[in-house]
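Thread title: Can someone regenerate the structure for this chain?

I was given the following input by a collaborator and told the matching structure tokens would be attached. They weren't. Posting the sequence so someone can regenerate them.
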Amino acid sequence: MSKTVRALILSGALALPGIATAADGVEAIKQRGTLVVGVKADYRPFGFRDPTGRIIGIEPDLAADVAKRLGVKLELVPVVSSNRLEFLQQGKVDMLIATLSDKPERRRVVQAIDPPYYSDYVNVMLAKKAGIKDWNELKGKPVCGTSGAWYNKDIARTYGAEIVAFDGSEKPLFAMKQGNCIGYVYDQTFIQGKMLDEEWKADYAMPLKGVLEAPWIMAVAPGNATLQALLEATTKDWMKTGLIVEAEKTWGITPTEYSKAMHEKAKAGTN
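Best answer:
Regenerated them for you:
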């Protein structure tokens, strides 16, 4: 990570409660001198806190790149699945880059940035002692989940799991560790991140194949055409340069087929 990017991240480590002009366009952001971005702070390696409390990770790095392109400072605002859309709608952030899956109902209330910058599967972090080897074996069993995750109902309906939902990602992990659930259904990349920690990989695993692949979108407020245009051009540049693939490697996860394929297409000029 460059010194410039690191400095931008550090400048946004302490989020303010909200900015009235946060939904304005590019010129307003430049006049303000700060880009306000909603990111996860509980989702390693995409957005999480280091020991000093600063928010770091893949998406903060991408947000820092946007701020650098604008020539402004970066302010990171921590969001969770259940409040991130409201933060954007209320003007507390200029944009979201917060593991937001691309769904029609979300596109109706925010302006999605195309093409999606990422794509991921849904999976389950399971206690090894549960002995689960197939999705159908979750039927009738309590599985922790995150409130606001779009796939909770799909997993319950398709596989019969009894979803016990909590805010954020730390609460369901704690509940699972306390034995309230046999596993935690969430994004596959998040689980990959947890499997990097000695705390989790001794007793938990990800034995199932990912399901319900969904692209991830950045989002701005509807009508924010100038920021939308900037982010769409930026996303295409990330794909051409392979920035996201390199970010995945930097933060310790295997690059997804989507990020690799989009990079190859962009390099070949077929995107």
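Confidence is low (pLDDT under 50) at residues 1-21.
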